[in-house]
Amino acid sequence: MRILVTGSDGLVATNIIPFLKEHFEIIPALEKEWDITDRDKGRAVLRSVQPHVLLNLAAMTNVDGCEDILDRAHKVNAEGPGVLADLCREEGVKIAHFSTDYVFDGAGQRPYREDDRTNPLSVYGRTKLLGEKEVMKRTDNFLIIRTQWIYGEGGENFITKVTRLGKEKGTVSVVNDQTGSPTYAKDLAQPVAALIRGTAPASITSPMMAPALGLTLQERFFPSCPYLQPASLSVRINSRERPQGPPIRSLIAARSRPIRGFV
Ligand SMILES: NC(=O)c1ccc[n+]([C@@H]2O[C@H](COP(=O)([O-])OP(=O)(O)OC[C@H]3O[C@@H](n4cnc5c(N)ncnc54)[C@H](OP(=O)(O)O)[C@@H]3O)[C@@H](O)[C@H]2O)c1
Predict the structure, then answer these.
(1) Which three-class secondary structure state does DSSP give residue 204?
(2) Considering the domain boundaries, does residue 139 fall inside one?
(3) What is the extent of the structural domain holding 142?
(4) Which of 61, 160, 191, 252 is most buried as measured by Cβ atoms within 10 A of its Cβ?
(5) Residue 6's domain is classified under what CATH number?
(6) Which helix or strand (DSSP H or E) is residue 175 part of?
(7) Does residue 213 belong to any structural domain of this protein?
(8) Which residues line ligand 1 (CB under 6 A)?
(9) Which residue's CA is the closest to the ligand 1 atom numbered 19?
(10) pLDDT of the chain along its 263 residues, tens only?
(11) Is 124 a residue of the active site?
């Protein structure tokens, strides 16, 4: 099976492509070669590559940047998936599209399920939700994969960030009241493969346990880390206040696994 992967130099792609390559023929695509919002280019690429599946990992993921550059966020996260879904329908290709827990507001009292009511609070979340809807509107042959709090090799994640800032500044204040499901990027590879093959149930969520970010990470994994100090919500590594931030409580229902990948 041939899979065309957009966003192929991003965090998720670089972590899952090595596994996918063992099972599929993978054709990576880069933004500089093909902007997913370019319909004509997309059609040409699909006709040339003739994939069975288009795995869309291209997105504008800078949450603060989305607040600042609304037009671009809408174009890439909402319109782009619609363009891809149109082209996939025309060419008889399945689209597997990645989305996020930011489609929820974080007010739920239990882990989210696929059919829970969405209520995004940020431009990123709103545009990603629109992207999901565009895909569903334009083709019947799709997968939408919501995941959250991804960390992995390549790029900066929470752990590398606090470690870097701690070394630079001596102390880092971190939120201690956010709850979510950290997802080791490589762990997405196998379920994504199973979904694409059609051998998994029709939904996939982050297969991780759910510590309260910050304090729990400190207590459980870095008890002797000198850098971390629990802080109130208003003190954030990323200086923006909510509602642009992630949902406070956004567990995605899934089987729990021990957290791994960086300890
Ligand atoms: N990271 C997380 O914690 C997280 C959590 C939940 C869901 N997700 C979702 O998972 C997917 C992958 O995220 P990620 O973390 O791998 O993001 P990432 O590291 O920011 O990578 C995004 C990729 O998309 C490319 N891209 C951006 N705009 C594009 C365009 N117009 N046309 C073509 N390519 C474009 C980027 O290329 P350049 O680098 O060249 O700009 C980059 O390769 C996204 O749908 C995201 O919403 C991520």
Answers:
(1) coil
(2) yes
(3) 2-150+182-197
(4) 252
(5) 3.40.50.720
(6) strand 172-175
(7) no
(8) 6-7, 9-13, 31, 35-37, 57-61, 76, 80, 98, 100, 128, 147-150, 155
(9) 10
(10) 999 999 999 999 999 999 999 999 999 999 999 999 999 999 999 999 999 999 999 999 999 999 999 999 999 999 999 999 999 999 999 999 999 989 988 887 777 777 889 999 999 999 999 999 999 999 999 998 888 888 888 877 777 777 788 888 887 777 666 777 778 888 889 888 988 988 765 544 433 333 334 444 545 555 555 555 554 332 233 334 444 555 655 555 544 444 454 43
(11) yes
